[in-house]
Amino acid sequence: MTSDEDLMAKAVAALPLAYCRYSKFPVAAALLCKDGTVFTGVNVENASYGGTICAERSAYVAAVSQGKREFLTIAIATELEAPAAPCGICRQFMNEFGNIKVILGSSKNCKTLVTTIKELLPHSFGPTDLSNHATELAYN
């Protein structure tokens, strides 16, 4: 089984692959699937800023495109001195696939912060909200 430290090491190792020519802020993620497979992702910026994809979403998209749907942990690394949390859209995106462990860390070997999707995005809107809505519509 992949340890939290191994997962963070995979995220840190992916940092140089980030394409961040505008922000100069590399971010990398390593996503552990329930079957033990690990997918990495990096931020990929675009001159049309809206076309940018964050590392977290990059890792999830890689996993989902290979048929993975069940995840255990994601490690997210930057080069900052202190751990940085994912942006709002990434929190919402990750929420789609369940409440998993989130490890925030750095290539600077700072202390990691361990949290969960639900702690990062309290009172979230997700798949069960839509299924509850469909059930309510069916009875009205």
TrEMBL record:
Q: Which reaction does it catalyse?
A: 2'-deoxycytidine + H2O + H(+) = 2'-deoxyuridine + NH4(+); cytidine + H2O + H(+) = uridine + NH4(+)
**Which residues are in coiled coils?**
none
The active site consists of 56 (proton donor)
- Does Lipid biosynthesis count among this protein's keywords? no
Q: Which UniProt keywords apply?
A: Hydrolase, Metal-binding, Zinc
Task: State if Hydrolase is listed as a keyword.
Answer: yes
What's the name of the protein?
Cytidine deaminase
Species the sequence originates in: Mesorhabditis belari
